[in-house]
Structures are given as C-alpha cells and as structure tokens.
Design brief:
The structure is a homodimer. Helix content of chain A is 33%, strand content 19%. In chain A, α2 packs across α3. Chains A and B meet through α2 and β4 of A and α2 and β4 of B.
C-alpha cells in the first residue's frame, strides 16, 4: 500500500491530487515550488514506474509547471525559468520537484536543493499560493 | 534548424545519439554524468516538446540512467542513486542531466550542479566511461 513519506508532511502542504501523483506545495516562500509524489509503492527511481506511469508523470510535471507559474503570477513575482529535479538522496521515496526560478531569487543561477534556509510563507501569501496552485492543477 | 549550444561542446564529449536527444558524457570524473539534449529547435522548457517528444525524452532519461550505472560499474564505483535535473538557468537550450551518485561522492547528499570544481578524467578512465556508456546506449 502506498504511504506518503512523513518528511513530505513536515515540509509541504497538500494540493489537489493528480491522476498519478500526490501534489504538495513546498513550504518555502523563496520559490513557487511543487513536489509530485507518484502513488506507487516502493518506487525510488523513474525506472520503477511502468511506461504508462512515466508518461503520466511527465504530463503531471508539465501541469505542475503551469501551477508554479500561476503561483508566481498570483504573488506578483512571475517566474522566468522552471527547474525540475528528481534527486531523492535524502528522502528516497520517488518524488519530483518543480520549482519556479527568477534571476533575483536567492539561489540563482544555482540549484535550490539543500541551499540556504527555507523562508516561512506569511498566512496571506500561503493562502494565495495554495489557491493559485489548486486552480491550475484542477483546470 | 537544431544546433547544439557550444557550451555543451566545451564541457562534454559525444556519445551515440538517441532517437530524440543528443547524448553527451559530462567531462567531470567526480560523477558518471550524461546530458541529454533534445534535437528540437528553440526548446527551453519541457512544455516546448510535443507530448510524443516528452514520452521519448522520458524513455531516453531511463536509458541514460542505465548508461550512467554502466559507467559507474565499469569504473569500479557502482552508483547508488540516480539524480535527474532539468535546470537551464545558465544554458537555456533544453537539456536534462542524468547523474550517478554515491554516498562517498564529494557533493552527497546535495545536488551536483554548480557545486565544486569539475575533475578531469584521466585518459584511461575516459575511454572506459565512453565505451561503457556507448555500449549501454546502443543496446
């Protein structure tokens, strides 16, 4: 049975689920950032997915990119580049990061993973981000 | 017309081309590392590919992962985790990194991009890595 790694519960907030993946907003106000976790028990690498699941994941990465753009726009900081990463060096359960980047963000042009300290969303911005993401993921 | 960004020529070496992508060995002996560049003119983000091209790219990422594992095995350093990244903050032409990681590598568990200084392959190791990767990509 698929169970979400508890790490994700501590660092991200629930978004509407997609056909293959759980979608979560990373609780780091430095970047519009969605994490996709395929609901496939025991999956660690992309090769652990079926060919059909891989195609679904790719489609959901593109949708998450649209949602990340929507968050950036809603917060008045339109994103300039998408970054997609599947690492799993720390949390092994297969997951894909979709992150919106700007040249004025604190990690540009480097990667975001493991860099600096997450910034807490204020309540209003969190509400705006969650609503923009949900709207994009459900459309 | 598709033309490879010259940056890739300076930092990586040609591997056998795949159906969608140019495949290149990143010239950094710290990690078995393949870069895939879809031959699609003007593509910057995954959304710039057709649905069919996205499925091809996903398949080629999995094949590149096998090739990265083959390089690690051939060099006596079997890889423990694959890392896949599509960033493009510096070189905008759409490309995907497939990197083999080990807990004893110099960047573990952080990402490799923009971290530390690339390590030159010695001639013999480079030959071994290129042959192992070519064999895996062509099988």
């Amino acid at each position: 049975m698929f169970e979400l790694d508890p790490t994700f519960l501590a660092t991200s907030s629930t978004l509407p689920a997609l056909a293959l993946c759980e979608a979560r907003l990373q609780l780091d106000a430095r970047f519009p950032w969605i994490v996709l976790i395929p609901r496939v028990e025991g999956a660690v690498e992309l090769e652990d997915l079926s060919v059909e699941e891989r195609a679904m994941l790719m489609a959901e990465i593109v949708v998450a990119g649209e949602a990340v753009r929507a968050i950036g726009a809603a917060l008045g900081r339109p994103i300039e580049k998408l970054n997609v990463g599947q690492l799993g060096n720390v949390t092994r359960q297969l997951h894909v990061h979709v992150v919106g980047r700007r040249q004025d963000d604190p990690c540009w042009p480097g990667p975001v993973w493991g860099q600096g300290t997450p910034l807490t969303y204020d309540d209003n911005a969190l509400e705006v981000a969650l609503a923009a993401a949900a709207n994009a993921l459900e459309s």
